[in-house]
Design goal:
The chain is mostly helical and 408 residues long. The chain has a single domain, classed as MFS general substrate transporter like domains (Growth Hormone, Chain: A, Up-down Bundle). The chain is 81% helix and 0% strand. The chain contains 16 helices and no strands. α2 packs across α8 and α15 packs across α16.
């Protein structure tokens, strides 16, 4: 390693040690987590509306998957580019703009006259996500006080909570009052825009104050070959996690309705149980990773789900509920650990790394929804659940991750 690289690493270690002694900026973390909740709640309304949209526009399961694919791809393709650009030229006030795009998409969804406008609405929501997630993840790290896993968990739990309450709100509001009632959720988007304006002001001040320190070139302690290999392993794990989750989040209500004869409203309540468990798991994953290391959390959270996933297609309603709660709890603990692990592999590239992993996760979720939707049309929802049950076994590749990255 060169002298400059060693010096850069020494400076990074000193900066990190100083940061670890400071306290997290809880006000900023709370605001960014709340904004994440609002953002992802509005996004989850699309998922929660699938049964309504299917009936309103006579959609096939393949078209349902295409809605997810449109939303996920607009988010996934843009996020790494947004992150890479803002690593070089920070754009503090881009956050409210991203939320505005999501708001416009939501309003369009409420009044969409046909399937084409539904796809356009999904694309606008995806663009909002592509702007929101990389910058918000960067802010969570800035506000962490050195507790990076904890900060990412606080940030992530806002999104998971929003995703969880979306189906619940849909059951209480959208199902009885129809498609146009979605527009009322624009009030929450306006709250999010207000919070993000405040967060953006803090971010701008923080960036200016630390600009001189950030000019220091930061070098990864790992070789390029190791970084590329570890990143590939992490992306395989993201594929396993989000392809599997696509089968749960996009088709769980249909699975419950088809197999157990539940109503749309009751099925959405069961989806809420799964998503709420995912939110709880997210809270636990980051702090545990700070304490015991990222790799054990990654290993257990992906591979550990496999026995429950394999049992799920054969369970009755009670055990289906219990198993999906366990799956949500364990599987959701992975992402914060994976994201922070990747940020530590490539220090100084927080935006690009966050954009890459959020984007890839969204892309795999969208691709999974589309592929599994076509598979469901040609076979059945029950067959889809049997097929995806083997995906968590890919968690075994976590053994290939390099040792040495344990704590922030």
């Amino acid at each position: 390693m060169t002298t400059n690289a060693v010096g850069a690493l020494d400076a990074r270690d000193t900066s990190t040690a100083t940061q670890q002694k400071s306290k997290p900026a809880f006000g900023i973390l709370t605001a960014i987590s709340t904004s994440h909740m609002v953002n992802d709640m509005m996004q989850s309304l699309i998922l929660a509306m699938y049964p309504i949209l299917k009936g309103e526009f006579s959609l096939s399961f393949g078209q349902i998957g295409l809605i997810s694919l449109t939303y996920q791809l607009t988010a996934s393709l843009l996020q790494p580019l947004v992150g890479l650009f803002t690593d070089r030229r920070p754009q503090p006030y881009s956050l409210p703009f991203g939320m505005m795009s999501t708001l416009i998409g939501l309003i369009l969804l409420a009044f969409a006259p046909n399937f084409g406008f539904v796809l356009l609405a999904a694309a606008l929501v995806g663009i909002g996500s592509s702007i929101f997630h990389p910058e918000s993840s960067r802010i969570a790290r800035l506000a962490s006080g050195g507790q990076h896993g904890f900060a990412q968990s606080i940030f992530q739990v806002g999104g998971n909570t929003g995703t969880a309450i979306g189906p619940l709100l849909a059951a209480l509001v959208i199902v009885p009052f129809g498609q146009r009632s979605v527009a009322w959720f624009g009030l929450a988007a306006m709250l999010g825009i207000g919070l993000l304006l405040w967060v953006s002001h803090w971010y701008a001040s923080r960036h200016i104050a630390t600009d001189e320190r950030k000019k220091l070139t930061i070098v990864s302690p790992y070789s390029r070959k190791v970084v590329i290999g570890a990143t590939a392993v992490l992306l395989v794990l993201i594929f396993s996690k989000y392809f599997y989750l696509a089968g749960i989040s996009s088709f769980y209500t249909f699975y419950l309705m088809e197999r157990f004869g539940l109503t749309v409203r009751n099925a959405q309540l069961y989806l809420f149980f799964f998503l709420f468990a995912s939110a709880v798991g997210t809270v636990l994953g980051g702090p545990i990773g700070d304490r015991i290391g990222r790799k054990p959390v990654i290993w257990v959270s992906i591979l550990g789900v496999a026995p429950f996933a394999l049992l799920l297609p054969h369970a009755n309603l009670f055990w289906t509920t219990a198993l999906t709660i366990v799956i949500g709890l364990v599987l959701s603990s992975a992402f914060s650990a994976i994201l922070v692990y990747a940020q530590e592999l490539m220090p100084g590239k927080v935006g690009m790394v966050s954009g890459l992993f959020f984007g890839f996760a969204f892309g795999m979720g969208g691709l999974g929804a589309a592929v599994l939707g076509i598979l469901a049309d040609r076979t059945s929802i029950a067959f889809v659940y049997q097929a995806i049950a083997y995906l968590p076994l890919l968690g075994v590749v976590a053994v290939l991750l390099p040792k040495g990255i344990h704590r922030a």
